[in-house]
Design goal:
The complex is a heterodimer of chains A (about 300) and B (about 450). With about 300 residues, chain A is mainly alpha-helical. In chain A, the strands form two sheets. A two-stranded antiparallel ribbon of chain A has the order 1-4. In chain A, helix 1 packs antiparallel against helix 10. Chain B is mainly alpha-helical and about 450 residues long. Chain B is built from 17 helices and four strands. In chain B, a hairpin with a 5-residue loop joins strand 1 and strand 2. In chain B, helix 5 packs antiparallel against helix 14, helix 11 packs antiparallel against helix 14 and helix 12 crosses helix 14. The chains are: A mainly alpha (about 300), B mainly alpha (about 450). At the A-B interface, helix 2, helix 3, helix 4, strand 1 and helix 7 of A face helix 2, strand 1, helix 8, helix 15 and helix 17 of B.
Chain lengths: ~300, ~450
């Protein structure tokens, strides 16, 4: 039972990270109707920016950990958001009215560019960081000596996810930008006729998605203590799986899907085999799409003739 | 998706030096922020796991400078060409000449290919490259059945390539079966996997299909890596037998081909044989595709590509149509995989990554979906261009990715973007790509 609880905690933390990335997929898919293949790499870039800005701050002599983390968070969000904006501007905007394979291929191309750009710029080796947030609580000490641990790091990941989701939900449901986004999701042409700046709204979607992916990248860096140039691909597919599982286009669905994928992956590693955990995650994607093509919280697709 | 062009945003563009400078300055500012941390500061893990970093402000400055200059250049070019696009650059007479040459390009290319081993007999490098290009031509033509004809976006095509390669490698090393027995088996096994993949994805369309095939490709690769007992895991399979000319080995032994013909043995014989083997396989793919296009099944594929709903309304069984497309494409992928295994003599999971799938898909789309000649030309350009960067291993994929983005922006419909009808009244007319509205098949 203790082992189970521990895996539950680990799975929820991993799921929060996936959920944050999945929001970017689900938003872009909802509005533009394309899979942003480069989103996983945006997450990876976010991790790198966080790492570099962290190193810089420490070398400048800052010692207050909360202040450092806050500055790193803001820098990572800002710079990665600019990456998201640039990617949309270069690779997707010129192709918005092209036939449907074109933006997908340019997205794959952009993903290659980002992966190899960070390999060229920062080297291929794994970049480790020492644990920054230490300590935690022992929730329950079992009779066999197995203790259920809840680290401060894990609490932080979940808290940051919840806070960001709250802000983000408010943004989408209460602000002008959120209204524009929902309008574009319904019908881009009609929204444009009614005075919504479609280009700007789509840009902002990419910016917000990238900023959330940057947060996920930073959490990943702090939680696992390392980043490398290739981590975006697998994390990206899993986050996309999460978005599909939750019902693509649905924001709570993305988070729910993220949690589900995180839990499934963790439990699979804990009880079956670590080697096949990615196989399990990808199989779930296929199974979900066969039996629930619109996901857990998705709306049924309307066929336009 | 709506197809209404929104060019209005570009009408208000002003010209003049201040505007261009302002734009370039803004681009440079964006570049400065983007690259400041990633390029300006280089991190590296030290021997004791401690991260160190050093600055590279010189590189940063030059990149920002390049962006500034490039932005000015692009803006000037754009104003010079004007809103009418690239049409102005090529006069109509030249365009007519190109379309006339296009008619003879296919046969000319084929004749030239037939004589490649004669012309470049002593240049091993060129022969190897030609074999590589032909392998991708074959893969491109195979995937063209799925993506180009049936319009089913397959991002996991390399899985069938892997199935073919591993089928041949394992059958040949474990049972000692010859290449000519294993080749059809590899194709059949790959086709079976194609059907297996086809079943779950029958209900899916467009991007969902793409992501499921991607996941499928990854599953196959992960299983190959982890099933160490069977596949050798990351170490791969080595000692795969070389192909024989129907039982006659191509080596310098006494019963080898050279000894039987009474000529001096040369290792080039095997290369030339491999060249004609892959050429024959590729031409087989091409011939089967062209024949199938004229049959009801091929027409059903093309109907499916253009509009799935209309297709169903006409009573076409979309299930069998999709399954046959997957199986046919997968079978050719399996053939190509078996050839790959016998050429290399060694295979490992590293040869079957997502990058390979993306490369083949890029060849099909760049060639112009459904165009056989276009795919061959695209394979030649992409693999040839890829070779140019062989020395710069890390920059290769970077350039490849950029090329993919730029080509899509420049020619989203590929080199040969028009559609040639399979059935016509009195006179065949090519259909311009602008008129084709693709369904979400």
């Amino acid at each position: 039972m203790d082992y189970f609880t521990q895996q539950l905690i680990n799975g929820l933390v991993l799921g929060s990270i996936y959920g944050l990335i999945a929001i970017g997929y689900t938003m872009v898919y909802g509005i533009v109707g394309m899979i942003n293949f480069a989103h996983g790499d945006i997450f990876m870039i976010g991790g790198f920016i966080a790492l570099i800005s962290f190193l810089l701050l420490v070398s400048l002599g800052l010692t207050a950990i909360p202040l450092i983390l806050l500055v790193v968070l803001l820098v990572a969000m800002a710079v990665t958001a600019l990456y998201g904006w640039t990617v949309e501007r270069i690779a997707y905007r010129p192709l918005r009215h092209s036939f449907r394979l074109a933006p997908m291929l340019s997205a794959i191309g952009m993903s290659f560019v980002l992966t190899n750009y960070s390999q060229v710029a920062q080297g291929a080796r794994v970049k480790p960081v020492p644990p920054i947030i230490t300590g935690g609580y022992t929730l329950h000490e079992g009779p066999e000596g197995f203790a259920v641990q809840l680290s401060n790091m894990q609490i932080m990941v979940v808290l940051v996810t919840i806070v960001l989701l709250a802000i983000f939900t408010w943004l989408v449901s209460r602000t002008r930008l959120g209204r524009d986004m929902r309008a574009c999701e319904q019908d881009q042409t009609m929204a444009a006729l009614l005075g919504v700046d479609v280009d700007r709204t789509i840009s902002m979607t990419f910016v917000i998605g990238a900023a959330l992916a940057a947060v996920a990248g930073m959490m990943y860096l702090l939680y696992y203590g390392q980043v490398d140039f290739f981590m975006g691909f697998v994390a990206g597919i899993k986050a996309f799986t999460a978005a599909v599982l939750g019902g693509i286009g649905s924001l709570p669905g993305a988070v729910l899907g993220g949690l589900a994928i995180g839990l499934i992956e963790t439990f699979w590693s804990a009880y079956f085999s670590v080697e096949y955990k990615d196989v399990a995650a990808f199989s779930i994607l296929i199974i979900v799409l066969i039996f629930m093509p619109t996901g857990l919280l998705g709306r049924p697709e309307v066929e336009k003739v | 998706m709506t197809a209404i062009p929104t060019e209005t945003t570009h009408v208000s563009r002003t010209s003049g030096i201040p505007f261009i400078l302002k734009k370039a300055f803004l681009s440079a500012c964006v570049a400065l922020v983007l690259f400041s941390l990633m390029i300006g500061i280089r991190t590296e893990a030290g021997p004791d796991g401690q991260l160190t970093f050093w600055t590279r402000f010189g590189d940063l400055a030059s990149i920002v400078g390049v962006v500034f200059g490039g932005s000015i250049l692009i803006e000037l070019l754009r104003q010079w060409i004007g809103p009418s696009g690239a049409e102005k650059l090529v006069p109509p007479a030249v365009q007519q000449g190109i379309s006339l040459a296009g008619r003879f390009l296919g046969p000319a290319l084929l004749v030239f290919t037939l004589f490649v081993p004669v012309i470049f007999y002593n240049q091993r490098y060129i022969l190897d490259l030609a074999i590589l290009v032909l392998t991708y031509v074959m893969l491109g033509w195979g995937l063209n059945v799925v993506v180009g004809l049936a319009g089913l976006l397959d991002l996991g095509y390399v899985a069938f390539y892997a199935v073919g390669a591993y089928s041949y490698a394992l059958l040949a090393t474990n049972f000692g079966w010859s290449f000519w027995v294993c080749l059809p088996l590899a194709g059949m096994l790959a086709a079976c996997w194609g059907v297996m993949l086809g079943f779950p994805v029958l209900r899916l369309r467009g991007d969902y299909l793409a992501i499921v095939t991607l996941a499928f490709g990854e599953i196959i690769r992960l299983v190959i890596i982890n099933w160490q007992d069977l596949t050798g895991g990351p170490n791969g399979v080595s000692g795969i037998p070389r192909p024989t000319l129907f039982g006659i080995p191509l080596d310098n032994s006494d019963d080898g081909l050279a000894a039987k013909l009474g000529i001096d043995y040369s290792p080039t014989h095997r290369i030339v044989f491999l060249f004609y083997l892959i050429l024959a396989l590729a031409l087989l793919t091409n011939w089967v595709t062209i024949r199938l296009r004229r049959l009801p099944i091929g027409r059903a594929w093309e109907a499916l590509r253009e509009d799935e709903v209309a297709c169903r309304a006409l009573g076409i069984n979309t299930t069998t149509t999709k399954l046959t497309a997957f199986a046919t494409g997968a079978m050719f992928g399996g053939f190509a995989g078996a050839f790959f295994a016998t050429r290399q003599g060694f295979i490992s999971p590293e040869s079957f990554t997502f990058q390979e799938s993306a490369l083949v898909l890029a060849i099909v789309v760049l060639g112009g979906m459904g165009s056989q000649l276009g795919v061959a030309l695209a394979a030649l350009t992409m693999i040839g261009g890829f070779e140019l960067f062989r020395g710069l291993e890390t920059y290769r994929m970077l350039v490849f990715g950029m090329a993919m983005v730029l080509i899509m922006i420049w020619r989203p419909r590929g080199i040969i973007g028009h559609r040639a009808p399979t059935v016509y009244l009195t006179k065949a007319q090519a259909i311009s790509s602008d008129l084709v509205k693709e369904g979400h098949g």
